[in-house]
Amino acid sequence: MIKLVEPLKKLIIDGVGVSGEEVEEQLFGGFCECGGVMYQRFWFTRDSEKILVSECEKCWKHKAMIFNSHSFVSHQSVEVLGKYDFVELLKETLGEKEFESLVRKAKNEEFDPVSYTRAKKMLTSMNLDIDEILDQVR
Questions:
Q1: Which residues pair with 56 in a beta bridge?
Q2: Looking at residue 57, what is its pLDDT?
Q3: Half-sphere exposure (CA, 13 Å, Cβ side) for 41?
Q4: What is the pLDDT of residue 70?
Q5: Are residues 87 and 133 in the same domain?
Q6: What range does the domain containing 20 cover?
Q7: Which residues pair with 50 in a beta bridge?
Q8: What pLDDT shows up at residue 69?
Q9: Domain count across the chain
Q10: Which parts of the chain have pLDDT scores under 70?
């Protein structure tokens, strides 16, 4: 499943973060299963794929439409993560010591530099910016 990290405006696909652009205007993004109209929220580019994430005006579901060049490839459900859910995902992804070091660093408290370095390395491998992450865990 694709995860949309709303505070960072990033998708997480197969454990890797993908940056995108927010759609500023209210543009048509398809129809939802509930019968509502979906509006475009974000466009992401991953390798040769373009991914449109749309949100239903009626039930607030998010869907991703994946395109290869200009051809439609597939639909996928999108799990939306707010700040709290994203922090929980970080707790699950990083080890306990790494997460604790990250939080301590964000709060300008004393932290274990070895654990912090491991956390930073893991987040970098996921294509997530450490400074953005520190802002979220404060």
A1: 38
A2: 96
A3: 21
A4: 77
A5: yes
A6: 2-81
A7: 45, 67
A8: 79
A9: 2
A10: none
Domain co-membership, 90 together with 105: yes
Residue 81, token pair as written in the block:
């993560």
One domain, residues 24 and 70: yes
Question: What is the 3 state secondary structure string of the chain?
Answer: CEEEECCCCEEEECCEEEEEEECCCCCEEEECCCCCEEEEEEEEEECCEEEEEEEECCCCCEEEEEEECCEEEEEEEEEEECHHHHHHHHHHHCCHHHHHHHHHHHCCCCCCHHHHHHHHHHHHHCCCCHHHHHHHHC
- Predicted model pTM: 0.90
Domain co-membership, 90 together with 131: yes
Say how far apart CA 120 and CA 62 lie, in whole Å: 30
pLDDT at 138: 87
